[in-house]
Every structure is written in C-alpha cells, then in structure tokens.
Amino acid sequence: MKFLLRFHRYLLWINLPVAALLALLQRTPLLRLVSAAESLVHASPVGHVLRSAFTAVASLGAAHALAGATQFVVSRTSVSGTVGAAVPVVAFSVSGSPASPGSYRVTSLPPGVTITGVAANGIFNGSAGTLSGTPTASGTFLAAITAYQNAGARGDAYGPTTVAFVIAPATPVTAVFSLQPASRTVAVGSNVTFTASASGTPSPTFQWRKDGVVIPAAVGVSFTLTNVQLGQAGAYSVAATNSAGTTVSESAILTVNSTAVGSPAFTTLPTASVTVGIGSTVVFNSTATGATAYRWQRNNGDLLNATSANLVVLNAGALDAGTYRVIATNSAGATTSRDATLIVNPVATTDLGRLVNLSILTTAGPGAKVLTVGAVVGPLNFSGSLPLLIRAVGPTLNTAFGIGGVLADPVLTLNAAGVAAPIANNDNWGGGTPLNAAFAAVGAFALPANSLDSSALSNATPGGYTVQVTGKADTSGLVIAEIYDNSTGRTATSPRLINLSSLTQIDAGANLAVGFVLRGSTARTVLVRGIGPSLGTIFGLGGVMSDPKLELFNNDTGSKITENDNWGGDAQLMDAAASVGAFALADTATKDAVLLVTLAPGAYSARVSGIGSSAGTAIVEVYELP
C-alpha cells in the first residue's frame, strides 16, 4: 500500500499541465528528479507501461534546459556587406542559463565568413564567439546559430537564432596582367606553351589570339601548341575579360626554325669556387643559349623554387656550403653546368671582402658633360670616419700612358650630401708629401709634382658624398676620376665604402668605363646597375640614354664575366636593390641594365654603352650587399 501511494504521487506530477511542468522543471534539478522517478517505475510491476512517459519528460527537459530567463544575445541580426570587403564582426553568446554553453554550431554562412577559429559551417567550442571574414560570393545567407550544453555540439541545445547576411557583388575592376606571355623560338615539331596571369574583379576569363585573331577553345591562362609548324609562327596574345572590360596582354612572338634546335649551351658558367664569410649573400650566375628552363641543385639534390638562371643564397651559413650546379633545358634536351663549390668560413669582420676603390674613365666638360661621382660611406649607424683619397687625372694620362685628347686642367670638388659648401676642392695637386704617401699606400700610379692633375684628402663620416670634375675654362677631354679607401688599422666598426656611382653623358658609340676594386680574404656580392630610362621617368632628367647595355669584366684577366641588356623585372634584382636602399626602377619593363654577382677580391670594370644609336645621360652604380 505505501508503495502504491508513493507511486501515485509521482504519477500526479507526470500528468501536470505542460506550463506547470515547465515551471517546475526550471526550479528542479532535472536529471536528479527524472532519475529518481524512473528508478521507481522500473522497480514497479507496471514499469513497462510508463517507460515511454519518462522518455518524453526527459526529452522535454533536454530541449528546454536553457529556457526561461535564458536569452540568445547577438550583436547584430543583419549584416550588409560586399564581396572582397570584410564584414562587421557579429558577436554571439547565451545569457541567463544555469551554465555557460560549451559549444556552438553555425550553418549557412557566406563563403569567406567564419566562426572564431573554425572553418565556415563548423563547430566552435567556447562560451561565446564571433563571426567575421571577407565574403567571396554575393547573395543572401541566413546563418543559423545553435548553442549546446557541452563541447562538440553535444548535450542540451538552445536556438537556433538567425543572422541575415546580405552580400552585394564587388565593384568591377578591369583585369591587370602580373605575368605577360614570353616570346619563344622553337624548331619545327616542337611543343611550346605560353603562360600569362591577370587578376581583376570579378575574376577574368581568358581568350588567346594569334595575330589578333581569336583561337577557338584557347581559353585558359596557358596555351600550348604541339608539333609546331612554320605556319604557326606569329604574335600570340591573350585577352582577360570581366564585367569591367577587356585587357589584352603584350604580344609574345613565336619564331619557328626549320632546323632542329640543339640542347642549351652555357655562355656563362657558375664561378667554380666561392669563399664567403658567415651571413654573406652569394650569387651563382649562369646563362645558356636556347634554354627555356633552369633547375639548381646542391649536393645533387634539387633546390626548392630555384628555377632562375641565377641562384641567390641569402645569409649563408654552414648548411649552405657544398657543391652547386644548374641544369638548363629546352625541347631538345638538358645541359648540366660545371660544379661550383661554396665555402662558408667564420672570417673576422675586418677581413671580409669590401669595396676600396672606384675609378671612372670618360670625357668630362661643361654643362651636361660635367662628371659626377658619388660615394656612400657606411654603414650609416657606424661612428668614426673613413680617410678618402680623391683624384681627377687628365694630363698624366697623356704623359705617362700616351692617351690623347685628355682634359688639360681638371678641377675637382667634394661635397657632402645636403651641404652646399664644398668640404674639399683642388685645382692642380701641387706635389705635396701627404698626397704622395697616400698614392703609394693605396697603390695609385704616381703623378708628376708639376702636373695640372687634381687631388685631395678628406675624412668622411658615414653618409653620402659627390665629387664633380670639370675642365678649367669650360674645356673638355678625357679624364679619370678616382675615389680610394685610404684607411689603415681597421676595426669591426670602421666605416667603409658601401656604394660607388657615376653620372655622366655618354655619346653614341662610346662607353662609360667604371672600375672598382675589392679587397679582403672573402668574395663579396655586388649589385651593379647601368640606368638610363628610369632617370627620366623617376627624376625627370632629360636626355637620358634610352637603352643602356652593361658589361662586367675581370681587369686582372681581361675576360668578360657577364652582361645584361634590359633587366627584365627579375624579383631577385628588386629584392637586392631594396636591401641596400637603391631606388626602385620605374617598372619591370624598363630597358635599364642590372647585374647581381659574387666576386672574389680583385679589380673589375663595368662598362655601359648604348644599344644601336642610343646615347645620353646614364648612371653606373656599384653596391655592396651584406
């Protein structure tokens, strides 16, 4: 009887109206209450009749365990945005529940919008979160957020609540090419691929053309011709089209030879052995005629992303030491260069390779013919000063070396950057003892005491300097201008020459010869530039050389090391220029000439001349790389 009375009391609350039951559940530990009642029923002979009732009660409690005063809080219920632009952040949480939620599930987010720390339409474990990101598609998206009692979207659930995202299409932007198709020369029967890259809003479609005529079905970023025949030679371009319009690439000229193309042949080989100090920049140069691709290896293993004709090794360390080689390929086969050995030694700072001299031999005179030589002493954060010897030699070129047409009476002036008053000048050096001693110390050829050549000594603190050489009474003639590092007893913090340059006018058929000397016990990487077009575009200088060519020679052997005509927008050259503070060239298509090369201690010369009848003002620069 007692059992029946007790059981009857449980049946009473099971049959309460729903509203009263919910109110009770909000105040009663649900699981404890249901568990006690369920154990009683299971113990009763009538348990099998009532089990389903307890199942319904438990489900009701689970669905509303966060009910009552509980509220879903979102910082905004509607969001307006545009494809490609970040949307306002939407914060969400649940307040008023007996315990903080353990996780959330969000569905139907716009592509590109995510939950805090989770991919779109995923599960976020935490008591509160945010929705943020940059939409990649337009449309209306009703994002549903559901809270869960436990992590992993498990346990009691509450919600969902909805956030409406209305995403408008992005403003159309005309396509811009980042990679132009390149001209190719192949033999009959070869395969050839043209590749381009362009971006715009929306993303463009591509259509290839030959001689301006659409090529059916050629609609990708790349276009391949197989078994090329003579009739397929021509100008190939690609049009990138979106809702903003159409942009046509530069034309790539396909030349088809009737005779077979041979395997690549190297005209520039990597230096056989290079020794540098720890932390140095190292460049291995190569050029192979007919090559369409390059692949560099170290110790017979391919190097990742090393697919240019030149290989740049930054901040060289012990792990970079080894044997390097490059494999040049084309449709006819592959050619492997000789091996180049890189040795990385822990060398004292005072023994590292460094620039010690710049010499310029050219014609100087009045007006545009004034010869300007620049030097930078650095690093700029160093203290102290660097003793410099400066010379402008004309008459002695004739009397000592038999050179005609010299500048009869050169005058030199030294200025610090940004300072109007000269810090040194000279007309006729006068044969003084300090200058004679300096000539001997740096290895400069002697000058007769009564010659009209000019020379001066100066102590230069870190910074920029210019030397101007003119002819007395506006005369013109051949002259050599020289800057020497005249230091002794160097320390780790002694300043040095880190950049040397020369600006002058070069006549058609003539050249500007710039000599420089490296001293020390290790090789040094230098950036050498012959710049004409960018001087006009960037600095507004008139009468510039439109197409300079740059050649680099070893003065000790007389052999040409390498050359460049049109730098081609090489990313490695841009990075090198930025690392030493050199001004950026006007664009990747300029006809300026640039070389990046690692040189052993010795004497070298860079010669700039104009292609064809090109003449005008040009600057030659030599920068020391770290």
Summarize the structure in words.
The chain contains eight helices and 45 strands. Helix 3 runs antiparallel to helix 4. The radius of gyration is 39 Å and the shape is globular. It folds into six domains: 62 residues, no CATH class; 98 residues, Sandwich (Immunoglobulin-like); 81 residues, Immunoglobulins (Immunoglobulin-like), CATH 2.60.40.10; 81 residues, Sandwich (Immunoglobulin-like), CATH 2.60.40.10; 149 residues, Jelly Rolls (Sandwich); 120 residues, Jelly Rolls (Sandwich), CATH 2.60.120.380. Strand 24 and strand 25 form a beta hairpin. The strands form ten sheets. It has an eight-stranded antiparallel beta sheet. The protein has 626 residues and is mostly beta strands.
Outline = globular
CATH class of the largest domain: Mainly Beta
Helix- and strand-based class? mainly beta
Gross CATH architecture of the largest domain: Sandwich
Number of strands: 45
Please name the CATH topology of the largest domain. Jelly Rolls
